Predict the 3D structure of the following.
Amino acid sequence: MNFDLEEFHNRYRSRIIEEWISRLQASGEEYAQRPYEELYQTISEAFDADYYYIVHNDYGPINIFINKITKIRLETGFLLSAVQNAFEQYRIIVLPLLAQETTTDQYYQVIEKINDCLAYTIYRFSDHFQNMHEKQILAQNQRLEGEVKARTAELRESELKYRTLVEEITDGYFVIQKKIIVFANQAFCNMHGYSLDEVIGKKYYEFVGPEDREKIIVMHNKSFEKDSPPKSFEYMRLTKRNEQYPTEILAKLTIYENKLSSIGICRDITERVKMEQRVREAERMAYIGQITTSLSHEIRNPLSAIKMNLQVLNKNISIEGNDQKRLKISVKAVIQLENILKELLDFAKPVQLKCDQVNLNHLVSSCSEFLDMKFKEKKINLIKEMAENLPYIQADKNKLEQALSNLLLNAIDASYFDSNIIIKTRLNQNENFPKIKVEVQDFGHGICEDQRQDIFRPFFTTKNKGTGLGLSNVKRIVEAHNGQLSVHNTHPHGASFIIYLPLEKKYG
């Protein structure tokens, strides 16, 4: 599928500009108080500047716009963070539109252009904002040269304003000299979980994940080459608690306190990465659903014919002995295939809820009775710990029965002979949003750590039989109810699956 970036911008120009204005007016008093005509003019110029950079790689309109907007925003007393947020709105508005019209490869190509554009714009604006602010300071100092006390007071006030601007931006801002961090704002400290005293004096690569450390060192060394432009790149930052998070950084050489330095602005992109993953997963699931639906319908009709004929033959009294046994095995195998097809079709269809008043204690009892023979086959003792006076919730009874039955069947499969399974219901009222908790705990072999992230993934299974769709469908059903599903290993052995369902309304 061809994607015309220029045509996309021309087609959505008016829509993007109007939504941009609307978002700015709702973002705070600074923009809410500006006349609509002024906002329309400046946002149109910003959009066109972004367009020329992204589509034609032309920096000129952005540089012209930054010179203009910096002067306007300084004169009207805007905070640096407010203008940075205004630039960021372009990305927030455009990405969902792109996700609808591009392939995955095209999407990431355009994202890269947009990220480069905004990184360049925000960095250049911040740098220009700072330079113009410093010029204002110098001009003010010259005017007050004869009044030493007044000049000193104005200088201190200006320095305080500058530091406030740096501290108020949500992105991490830092300065490096000879591989040592000599300045950092509070946002940088917060992003890494350190105090300012702990940051200053440390080598910059100590804040980079081990796998990205060598890459960052090479890029930092190359930045000292002659005429090196500002560089934007992604890496995993390392926090004090040894946690790693995706981060985007823009770095450039400059003079700080009369010394050659590297300055950088880093931004947490965890949510953006998650969104990209969700887009990729949604595309993959849609493709799988199409294939599954097509195959299931193609297979179901001949399978039904085979089953019907086998059942007819099974009633033939002239077939005896091993032949009769073979027919029964064949019928059982066909029924198993039909169940697998049903699972595939359930997975391919979106979850549609038919909600009514449901009591989860009653639901647990119903599911446990239905699976009673399964428990007896492995001599498993089901222990029910039910909360008293559990309120009703609005839910789809059949869908929740399907989800709970799947969890119980998994627990049976994972359990040893002559063991226990515990199922609990609890009312959690200690939060702003009360929830009902349902927990299924087995005492089997537990879940391998390297498999825990995959067990809810479609078609992933550790069993010799099965499609790997059971837990995936459980997760889809729970999330369709605005609930949450989690799993953890229990001590000394076994696993526990926990469902949280919101208690939106109580019934008597």
About this structure: The first strand starts at residue 172 and ends at 177. The chain has a mean pLDDT of 81.
